[in-house]
Design brief:
Length: 249
């Protein structure tokens, strides 16, 4: 695990986006195609912005995403499908493919559908974040570290739902869904490379818990300590509580 510290969210996102782009290009050069995972949410704005500025042949890239709420229309501002369609798909030419999670139908059937697809697309680069409660994707504590199922239906805890409300995605806390479809911990960890972008002071405690404490499903993103090709991108605020880390530039 490598930890990169930058001054602010923009510099963090620029560095993370450039690193991800290079890994994507290497995968394309090596095997003619790249399979990637995109994260969503406010923490990914700058990383995604930089990624879109990079020279990448998107026609050779297959995209998956981490999670989606159950029973939330794609027209809702908080929909991650809407996020990706507007912030990514609409801005690239001839994308190879994108597998979006549809949480509006039968969740178990959707889990089966997307799990079958990703099983046939070994992931080269996963772009992820860390939640305020330490979650990885929507795997809230205590996260399931054991299931081999690529996607699963999960319950969202209070702190997770409060984060979504405080970020401005919902008008009321009560409007935040209580369930979602999420990529599993083990599926994320199967990625060849992981780029984790975590800006802001509100993430500082989760960063400390997940990077300096023991690996435990009570701090789900702590599992990233065990990935051999994971780079964590922090800014001064999100790194402010760390005590025992060596940073890269």
């Amino acid at each position: 695990m490598k930890i990169v510290r930058k001054e602010n969210p923009k510099e963090l996102g620029t560095a993370a986006g450039k690193a991800a782009a290079q890994l994507i290009r290497e995968a394309i050069n090596e095997k003619g195609v790249a399979n990637i995972i995109l994260a969503t949410g406010t923490s990914q704005f700058e990383t995604l912005r930089q990624l879109l500025e990079e020279d990448i042949d998107w026609s050779k890239v297959n995209v998956f995403h981490l999670d989606e709420y159950i029973d939330l229309p794609v027209t809702h501002p908080a929909s991650f499908r809407k996020y990706l369609k507007e912030r990514f798909v609409a801005k690239v030419d001839s994308l190879g493919s994108i597998t979006l999670i549809n949480g509006e139908g039968d969740p178990e059937e959707e889990v089966k559908r997307i799990s079958e697809i990703i099983t046939n697309h070994p992931i080269d680069v996963a772009m992820v974040g860390i939640g305020e409660n330490g979650h990885l994707a929507f795997n809230d504590p205590p996260a399931n570290f054991d299931t081999e199922q690529p996607y699963l239906v999960v319950d969202l805890d209070g702190p997770c739902r409060m984060q979504q409300f405080n970020e401005g995605w919902f008008k009321n806390f009560e409007d935040v869904p209580t369930q979602a479809i999420s990529m599993s911990i083990r599926q994320i960890m199967k990625s060849k490379h992981i780029i984790c972008s975590v800006p802001d002071q509100r993430k500082a405690q989760a960063v400390k818990d997940c990077l300096e404490k023991d690996v435990t499903n009570l701090h789900p993103a702590s599992i990233l300590q065990e990935h051999s090709n994971c780079s964590i991108y922090l800014d001064n605020e999100s790194a402010s509580l760390l005590e025992n880390q060596t940073f890269s530039n």
